[in-house]
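Worked Example 4.2. Consider the chain below.
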Amino acid sequence: MAKRPVATSSDDELPFETEEPVADERSFFGVRPQKPAAPNARTALPASLLGPEHYHGHRERLRDRFRELGDTALADYEILELLLFRLIPRRDTKPIAKALIERFGSLSGVFGAPAALLTEVKGVGEAVALDLKLISTVAHRTLKSELRSKQVLSSWSSVIQYCHAAMAHETREQFRILFLDKRNVLIADEVQGRGTVDHTPVYPREVVKRALELSATAIILVHNHPSGDPTPSRADIDMTKVIIEAAKALDIAVHDHIIIGKDGHVSLKGLKLI
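Applying the procedure from the previous section yields the following structure tokens:
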């Protein structure tokens, strides 16, 4: 700090008085200290004093709509969002639900997707993917249990719903057989083979052998087309006819062969191809 002398009448040592500081040339080249950024309004407060996140009110409103009006008042992504409230309690789940529907095309597509693909969506971890697959399994088992207590041929819509839920979104072909007793009640539902995206090896001899082991008197053949188009190929038709001939020799009826696609199904019997 610079000082300047004050004139007096004596020859004593000059006293000094303090003045405003004189700027030092170093201050012109030095880095001036930056003003600290203002703290975020929420992070500046203790967690115990923070109010609810913005999406909490939205959650309550969505629950109220579902409670009062049922699922018909909600879009598919909102139904999924309601479910994700339970699985992801501390995040805004609306963008996650929308991203899942966009990636997999529909609500059924989300539940049918492999867990590994679900985790590729931002916000979906391994635990959430596993929970979604568990819910999907519960739905499949519910549909299957309904079939067990009914005559399958008189509950055809239930058969289609079950097969669609179980197979429509598989990424590889599956060949499934529904084994029926003499009253056409379901004895067993088994996947006999898994193949590639467009082919599953099927062995008529093994199909008939398994039907005899289960004492089945009739079967329904089912397989999926991962491409989404359920139109039967020439190979599908020919293979079905071979199984029908092999089963007929042992008094086992083949009621139908159903092909499942993502957006529908085809019955070979309905097309009069068998």
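Residues 7-32, 41-52 have pLDDT under 50 and may be disordered. The chain is about 40% helix and 15% strand. Compare this with Example 4.1 before moving on.
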